[in-house]
Design brief:
single chain, alpha+beta, CBS-domain, CBS_dom_sf, Diverse_CBS-Domain, CBS_dom, Acetoin utilization protein AcuB, CBS domain
Length: 148
């Protein structure tokens, strides 16, 4: 019988797709679409975690009252503006060796769908999303077939 994962490290998505603060909003959106993800940790060229940007942040930027409702205006706006302009810099993170239950509690209380996962020194090593937690729950609750 296999060991039940206990730490964030065991169920997180390692080496997450990231974006730099100077990337355009269009580039961030393209990364999200290409990889089927909803949030991107924002890191400096040295790999330092400085923010996070989500699909919701991009939707809010697209709905700016300063824009016309024309798709070409949104596309131009996303090419002209940078991730640093809309990223969230107050970060809620979790260390990789924390218990999974602590991550779930933190996500629930903070009302976030994902947590950047860091080592003790602050280095980004992964991301834990609501989907990762649900997949873990399914593995725990799904009946295991046994051969007789």
């Amino acid at each position: 019988m296999s060991k039940v994962p206990q730490t964030v490290r065991e169920i997180m998505t390692p080496d997450p797709i990231t974006v730099t603060p100077d990337a355009t909003l269009a580039a961030a959106l393209q990364l999200m679409i290409e990889h089927g993800i909803r949030r991107l940790p924002v890191v400096t060229e040295r790999g330092e975690l400085v923010g996070i940007i989500s699909d919701r942040d991009l939707r809010l930027a697209a709905d700016s009252p300063l824009l016309q409702v024309m798709p070409e205006d949104v596309r131009r706006h996303f090419e002209e503006h940078r991730v640093s302009e809309i990223m969230r810099t107050v970060l809620i993170t979790i260390e990789a060796d924390e218990p999974i239950v602590e991550a779930a509690k933190l996500m629930r209380v903070a009302r976030v769908g994902g947590l950047p996962v860091v080592e003790r020194d602050g280095a980004l090593v992964g991301i834990l999303t609501r989907s990762d937690l649900i997949d873990h729950l399914i593995r725990l609750l799904e009946p295991v077939e046994t051969s007789e």
